[in-house]
Design brief:
Strand order of the largest sheet: 2-1-3-4
Shape: elongated
Number of strands: 4
CATH topology: Rossmann fold
Helix content: 40-55%
Number of helices: 6
CATH architecture: 3-Layer(aba) Sandwich
Largest sheet: 4 strands, parallel
CATH superfamily: Resolvase, N-terminal catalytic domain
Length: 154
Amino acid sequence: MTTVGYARVSSTGQDLTVQLEKLAGCDKVFKEKRSGVDAGRPALNACLEYLREGDTLLVTKLDRLARSTRDLYRIISNLAERGVSFKVVDDPSVDTTSRTGKLIMGILALIAEFENDIRRERQQDGINKAKAKGVRFGPKPILTAEVVQKIKEL
């Protein structure tokens, strides 16, 4: 059983020191300086691939692992399927080794689903309003009115 840490800051100007100090007891720590919205985070991908059944992934704050609740729950669900536990140093209530921690993760999943439904509804409302105003969606036409006229003349 290995404790694996993951530390991330969003930009090269930020410092990982505080996170690394909190993860000092980990057997292995993956770290990177990349945006949380960047799906192609190489250190996170390597970390998730490294983890094995019985291991525990440790982060200092939830937002270090994922920017959205949906993404967070996707990662945590994948870890749970593989028998990997998850803990947050600065928020001990998020701990999938306990019943309460699992409950909190379940609540986060429901919140993520709720957020997605609301976002989808807002997006559809915006699309419907734009269509009602005559806004066209999709790629812009390749042929301009002038080119069409020239073709007709030829």
